Amino acid sequence: MNIVEQMCEADLKGTSLADPANYHAYREMMIPAGPEWVEEHIRRLSAKGIQTHFQLANIAQLETVERMMRKGSCNVPLILTWVAIGGGFDAPNLYNLANFVRACPDGSVLTLETSMLNVLPLNMMAIAMGLHVRCGIEDNIWTQQRDRKMGSVEQIEQLVRISREFGREIASAKEARETYRIGTFYRDADEALAANGFAPNRKRGQAGFTQHAA
Q1: In whole angstroms, what is the distance from residue 211 CA to residue 214 CA?
Q2: 16, 121: one domain
Q3: Phi and psi angles of residue 109, each rounded to the nearest 5 degrees, phi first
Q4: How far is CA 92 from CA 15, 181, 203, 206, in A?
Q5: DSSP state, residue 49
Q6: Number of structural domains in the chain
Q7: 37 and 26 share a domain?
Q8: Rounded Cα distance, 206 and 199, in Å
Q9: 50 and 9 within one domain
Q10: Distance from C-alpha of 160 to C-alpha of 182, rounded to nearest angstrom
């Protein structure tokens, strides 16, 4: 997870990433999230009534989540973020974006994420498509012209203005909780697959399928 791969010297200047030791740590960052680690965390979160939110680098990771769901180890809503930051993750371009969106089933809740000057254009695409957005100084510190620094509140206010220009009203806290299905968990793989828009698991002797049983 090399989060600095897409950043230039101006992005680093004046931040903790300008420190050579920090830069090296983030450039060489590894995520120890193997299958057992992920499944155990989903079990612990679900047992405590805490929502799982998947931060995914590419379609291959989305397919892993689907397989986990089919095996019954991931009976949760498909709430996910496409993290397009390069460095082992997808790059933020139209082709990667379209492929990832196309791979997401209709029941999923998808947010787009990237870094620095890619944030605003990607968020505008998300708004236009009716997806969800992420912004703030963890991801971006600039105006789009890179002529001054921009705080989190100003970035949020900017996206609110743009959303309303697109005809996308801002969700209330209640609506956001409903969209994210906070507190929702599923009994088994069959229920999770149906709720999240995936085709059902194949039953023995079944030649093909597209529909869940009524």
Answers
A1: 9
A2: no
A3: -120, 110
A4: 23, 27, 39, 40
A5: T
A6: 2
A7: no
A8: 13
A9: no
A10: 23
> Distance between terminal CA atoms of the chain?
43
* 131 and 108 part of one domain: yes
Is the distance from CB of 81 to CB of 134 less than 8 angstroms?
Answer: yes
Whether 13 and 77 map to the same domain: the answer is no
Neighbours of 112 (CB within 10 A): 25
Pair 53, 73 in one domain: yes
Interhelix angle 152-165/119-129, rounded to 10 degrees, is 40
Tokens representing residue 134 in the block: 């992420």
Instruction: Count other Cβ atoms within 10 Å, centred on residue 42.
Output: 19
pLDDT per residue as tens digits for the range 187-208: 999 999 999 999 998 877 666 6
| Pair 81, 6 in one domain | no
203, part of any domain: no
Query: What does the DSSP 8-state code read for residue 164?
Result: H
- pLDDT tens per residue, range 25-65: 999 998 877 889 999 999 999 999 999 999 999 999 999 99
CA distance 16 to 74: 36
Residue 97, domain member (yes or no): yes
Q: Do 42 and 111 fall within a single domain? A: yes
The pLDDT score that the predictor gives to residue 205 is: 63
Phi-psi map region of 204: left, alpha, beta (phi>0 left; psi -120 to 50 alpha): beta
Q: Say if pTM beats, i.e. exceeds, 0.85.
A: yes
Residue 207 lies in a domain: no
Where in the sequence is the domain holding 157, given as residue range(s)?
33-196
Segment (H or E) for 177: helix 173-179
Q: Match 């120890």 to its residue by tokens.
A: 32
Structure-token match 């230039």, residue found = 8
